[in-house]
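Schema walk-through. Below, the input block comes first and the output block second. Nothing else is stored per chain. Lengths vary across the set, and this one has 76 residues.
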Amino acid sequence: MEAKFKVGDIVRIVSNEIQPEYVGRIGRISKVYPAYNEKAGESFVFRVNVGGKLLKGVASDNDLSLITEGGNDGKV
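--- output ---
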């Protein structure tokens, strides 16, 4: 199974229960971790950096939408 996002991808945060003030903001994937859930099976979770701040907790596929694939040198 391959992760939906990779380190460096630019994403929009579409849901964040821990820090709802970041919903709608754009960030960069900083870490990708494999995860396992009895209902969903194998999956991945992501750490997201917004404006130089690493957000608390982790995001799932459903919490993010892809803006630009990694390799973009623009600051977020």
